[in-house]
Specification:
By secondary structure, the chain is an alpha/beta fold. Among the domains are: about 35-165, Rossmann fold; about 190-340, NAD(P)-binding Rossmann-like Domain (Rossmann fold, 3-Layer(aba) Sandwich). Helices cover about 45% and strands about 15% of the residues. The protein is built from 14 helices and twelve strands. The protein has a seven-stranded mixed sheet with strand order 9-8-7-6-10-11-12. Strand 11, helix 10 and strand 12 (about 335) form a beta-alpha-beta unit.
């Protein structure tokens, strides 16, 4: 289980280090270290057995300097205030880095969705939405799907909010079904962005995509989409894993069959023509690229030195600890950080929000073209700063994102 205290301290340490490099003045630095607003709510739900169970819910809005806050909703037993606060902060830097007119937010409910029925999840979602309804809205804070939430969750949230407003408000959440104002390409946005970052890393490192050996930890929405797209580009996906463990084939996995196996079995374990591996062993494989696309804190000082891959593209939020970062840098591993690598989701969410406000929707070709343009342009900015200052990609990305928010705060001043 991820230690959320460590996750939160990591986010603060990253910020403090970059704030020092940027010479951000003390008053602005202090304001940026803490969330704008943190809400903890009780979420009473009538379960299928007739009993009332009270869940704990959270919504943290880290910053609203550049616009309304934006961030996902997760359902997981590990959700707590430290976790959502850390992820909301990272979301602020991510939105600023990608040029989105947003601040960062994050939310969730401490629960185990795998033990709940669809009806229980709907009742919990609607009650949670009601409890946070005063702080969300298309011009306030726009939730989206995250861990164990999906388009259906967002449909329930949008409906609950709209019922209380008295009119339909599609722009209150993103990641909705297409019929309810969702955007084409949203479900694949994060995974597609990760794949683009692998392609860009290969380009600047003069590596041929064809035959590039890729291992992916986590084959949910992000990992599976990245696997398919990279496979289509000629990469060899040699290993994948999920909570059940992993599978490996040195010659490359048959991706269409992998996706079929996942649909049928829900887990990668037992896939034919593969050798079983653990999640820990995946990081030690002889491969070119590793994509950690599961949860936080997977690459640590304990396993970083065992990594043979020379490229890491962070599909998950916070998969690498600061101690591991130092080891990877010393070993000359090229790392594309989470605030850039997995920003495809929030980028297409921004597209969805714009379309909802305008009530005018774009084609999937337009969305893919715009997404690739934003991702590649931002990669080039981060890579250029990294080369210019002789720093790693994470520090460069954080400098651009944090610097943008700091400058905006300075321009706006302090009220009153």
């Amino acid at each position: 289980m991820v230690n959320n205290d460590i996750l939160y301290e990591t986010a603060l340490r990253q910020f403090d280090a970059v704030a020092e490099i940027l010479h951000i003045e003390d008053g602005i630095r202090e304001r940026m270290r803490y969330p704008k607003r943190s809400l903890i709510v009780s979420v009473p739900v009538k379960m299928d057995n007739g009993k009332i169970k009270v869940f704990k819910g959270y919504r943290v809005q880290h910053d609203i300097t550049l616009g309304p806050s934006k961030g996902g909703i997760r359902y997981h037993p590990n959700v707590d205030l430290k976790e959502v606060s850390a992820l909301a902060m990272l979301m602020t830097w991510k939105c600023a880095l990608m040029g989105m007119p947003y601040g960062g937010a994050k939310g969730g409910v401490e629960c185990n969705p795998e033990e709940m029925s669809q009806d229980e999840l709907e009742r919990m979602t609607r009650r949670y939405t009601t409890e946070i309804v005063q702080v969300i809205g298309p011009d306030k804070d726009i939730p989206a799907p995250d861990l164990s939430t999906n388009t259906q969750t967002m449909a329930w949230m949008m409906d609950t909010y709209s019922m209380q407003q008295g009119n339909t408000v599609p722009g209150v959440v993103t990641g909705k079904p297409l019929l309810l104002g969702g955007s084409r390409g949203r479900a694949e946005g994060t995974g597609r962005g990760v794949a683009y970052m692998v392609m860009e890393a290969a380009r600047v490192l003069y590596k041929d995509l064809r035959g590039l050996r890729v291992a992916i930890q986590g084959v949910g929405n992000v990992g599976s989409v990245a696997a398919k797209l990279l496979n289509d580009q000629g990469c060899n996906i040699v290993a994948v894993s999920d909570v059940s463990g992993g599978v490996y084939n040195s010659k490359g996995l048959l991706i269409p069959y992998l996706l079929h196996h996942l649909r049928e079995s829900k887990h990668v374990a037992g896939m034919r023509d593969t050798d079983p591996i653990t999640n820990e062993e995946l990081f030690e494989l002889d491969c070119d690229v590793i994509i950690p696309a599961a949860i936080e804190g997977q690459i640590t000082e304990k396993n970083a030195d065992k990594i043979k891959a020379k490229v890491i593209v962070e599909g998950a939020n916070g998969p690498t600890t600061p101690e591991a970062d130092k080891i990877l840098q010393d070993n000359k591993v090229f790392l594309v950080p989470d605030i850039l690598a997995n920003a495809g989701g929030v980028t297409v969410s921004y597209f969805e929000w714009v379309q909802d406000i305008q009530y005018y929707f774009w084609s999937e070709e337009d969305i893919q073209r715009k997404l690739r343009g934003v991702m590649v342009d931002t990669f080039n900015k981060v890579y250029a700063l990294s080369n210019k200052r002789g720093i790693d990609m994470r520090t460069a990305g954080l400098m651009l994102g944090i610097g943008c928010v700091a400058e905006a705060k300075k321009m706006r001043g302090l009220y009153p």
